[in-house]
Amino acid sequence: MSEPIGSVTVRTSPTRSRLVLAGEVDMSLAEELSAAVDNVLALAMPVDVLVRDVTFLDSSGLSKLVRLATSSISRTRLIEPPEFVRFLLEVTRMDEVLDVVEKDPGFPDDDPSPDVVGLGSQRDAV
């Protein structure tokens, strides 16, 4: 399998988790995204998904977002979705299970370094 052109990063704080998606979120990123979704669901806290820098989203990425939205302890927030992502949410009716947030509200304890990178194998104390 070729190297993914997209990326997924997991950030955690004492009160929230955040997935940061960028680039092409497609089948090449499916395994990594699935592991990231598993990680944030296991933390059992509210989840934000920052999608501002997503350039492509296919059905494999959408399916992981559906799993996250339907399994999370609270409504998942999709932060700053590009127009094409909004369109996909509307036609798939995912906008009924996700909250769309226009402007990034920031992240608790925001600092420039992520807590978890890639598959979530590295993690700082929360």
From TrEMBL:
<protein>
    <submittedName>
        <fullName>Anti-anti-sigma factor</fullName>
    </submittedName>
</protein>
<dbReference type="InterPro" id="IPR036513">
    <property type="entry name" value="STAS_dom_sf"/>
</dbReference>
<feature type="domain" description="MlaB-like STAS">
    <location>
        <begin position="19"/>
        <end position="95"/>
    </location>
</feature>
<dbReference type="Pfam" id="PF13466">
    <property type="entry name" value="STAS_2"/>
</dbReference>
<dbReference type="InterPro" id="IPR058548">
    <property type="entry name" value="MlaB-like_STAS"/>
</dbReference>
<feature type="region of interest" description="Disordered">
    <location>
        <begin position="102"/>
        <end position="126"/>
    </location>
</feature>
